[in-house]
Amino acid sequence: MGNEEVSSPLFETKRAKGIVLYRLFAASIFVGICFIWVYRWSHIPKAGEDGRFGWMGLLGAELWFGFYWLVTQASRWNRIYRHTFKDRLSQRYENELPGVDIFVCTADPTVEPPMMVINTVLSVMAYDYPPEKLSVYLSDDGGSELTCYALLEAAEFAKHWIPYCKKYNVEPRSPAAYFASIGSDNAGDFTLIKKLYKDMENKIESAVKLGSISEEVRSKHKGFSQWGSYSSRHDHDTILQIVIDGRDPNARDVEGCGLPTLVYLAREKRPQYHHNFKAGAMNALLRISSNISNGKVILNVDCDMYSNNSKAIRDALCFLMDEEKGHEIAFIQFPQNFENVTKNDLYSSTLRIISEVEFHGLDGYGGPLYIGTGCFHRRDTLCGRKYSKGYKSEMKWENRKGEEISIPKLEESSKSLASCTFEENTQWGKEMGLKYGCPVEDVITGLSIQCRGWKSVYCNPTRKAFLGVAPTTLPQTLLQHKRWSEGDFQILVSKFSPASYGYGKISLGLQLGYCSYCLWAPNCLATLIYSILPSLYLLRGTSLFPQISSPWFIPFVYVMIAKYTWSFGEFLWFGGTILGWWNDQRIWLYKRTSSYLFAFIDTILYCLGYSHSAFVITAKVSDEDVSQRYEKEIMEFGASSPMFIVLATVALLNLYCFAGFLKEAMTGKGIVEVYETMALQILLCGVLIIINLPLYQALYLRKDNGKMASSVAFKSMAFVAFSCICFKFLY
Predict the structure, then answer these.
(1) How far is CA 728 from the centre of its chain?
(2) pTM for this predicted structure
(3) What is the helix (H) or strand (E) element at residue 306, kind and residue range?
(4) How many CB atoms within 10 Å of residue 246?
(5) Catalytic: 625?
(6) How far apart are CA 591 and CA 594, in angstroms?
(7) 534-558 pLDDT, tens per residue?
(8) What percent helix, strand, coil does the chain show, rounded to 5?
(9) Is position 112 annotated in a ligand binding site?
(10) How far apart, in whole angstroms, are the C-alpha atoms of residue 140 and residue 104?
(11) 602 appears as a binding residue in the annotation
């Protein structure tokens, strides 16, 4: 190997084009924002004048919007893009590639069906990687016999599936996704592998419908005896089973090649001990895996997030094993992508601008956030190691053949590592492993790693590395964003706030990047003010914005047109659709006026000691009629929810205010004269009405089960009627 070849980097970094142009554009918007602030401050109505309260409310909202806009610019001013050279990695290190431990976490076989879980497991078992260096761990916090049985069946199927994938270079390597993409094929191998998959699927689904494992199956697998101590999913001993031992020379596929190690774990649960949700499961896996395979690299994926790119593992290693910069990198984050997103992304699940723009910007300041799935870590950084310039971790493979221990002994010696009491009086959950006490344990863990001096990398290859299941109903979407925004806001008000904890440890740009997400929840206040007050004052005929003929009208119009024109063009540039952008704006409004509002309230109550953090699992399955409406891009509301009462109240308030305004205008001054003085208020109220059309349909026109509950309609109408009457006649 020549010196030139050795010195060639394993990845390259390119700065995004047009950054100077964008900075000039952003500067012009900031000038417009400053003019808006000056106008709002210099034209405050005197005490006792009509509109003073609304004016002050809009001043506060506009100050907040301007401040938050400045914070978000950090993730756009320094975007970079990465490209890996996997061929160079293979040429230099193919025989020395490190061991990789893959963690798959599941918690509820009802919400996360076993078939979905094992498709994810099979996809990562079939990575384009030496099988003896690959170990897959399934953490089952539901402690379900059904999930364990599904894994045992998957282990048998893997003996056929893995060689089939390698022979035909299959992509994706989730069997369900592969067969769905291929359709029908009469080739012999395809027919055989599909039949084997269907046989496995039938066995698993039959057991799921039955709700238990048959005695015949139970007698074949001694591992089921471990459920003897099982009282409930919250009260049982550690259940650990090494399903496939990759070190065993007899663990072979049908072609005679080795298989990856495969392990099932249901950590000990007791009612009197807090189990710390997913963070606790990950920490248990860290300890268990260190005793079994001890791979130097760890990948964690959610159970619905299957591998869509068999070479993603090599992409990650190009960063970690780069001779010049690899020793600085702690983790490589891949974006979250979804296979079931509709053409126009009904619920804005792709988070397109975050994954295609903002995370690339954060990468330019030292790395993106750790988002809890699709992330490759150095084991030692997850376990608390601090970065030092002189330290260079050897990522090469270490053969453990000299450490042969029988499977029963290895299982027994490892069980104590997943006990409820193991972490007592230790640094686990504090300085070691994932941190506890926050609904977004991933974000706070990634921040602490970066504050120890490490960098992270954002890798967004053309072929998406992982594909998951996006929410298919509005309640699921809002609940997911409530959990995210609540957890991020808790970080901001904790001792781990990026503004204070990160000061002097990470770059200012990265601090601002973290803060832009930590400030999601407080956005609810300014958004609610702008969604309600202008419409209420429109009903009274009181103007809160400059007239069309006023020069102060220009900065408002410029900021609005420039911001949304750029947003629209950017969304289309990165693969979105026109209707997809409109859906994105709608969900932006719904999140800010419901999810973020309840997240903000719950966080304040949490800080005052009146509530506790909880981890809510997003449902991964839907009823058939729900799925059909989702595919037709019909919004799913369904059961009553406090979030829907807020959404419906805001939507109806704007509709009633607009109708009342039109009535007054037509019988009074006339539309043209009123439009001259209140154009921006009319426009704002009109846009809010148009964006809420699906909500009005769900309230009054739809007859299917996805409509808005009648109780929501009655409550919201009562709130709106009371508000309008009071504001019109009493204020």
Answers:
(1) 43
(2) 0.94
(3) strand 306-307
(4) 21
(5) no
(6) 5
(7) 999 998 889 999 999 999 999 999 9
(8) 55, 10, 35
(9) yes
(10) 9
(11) no
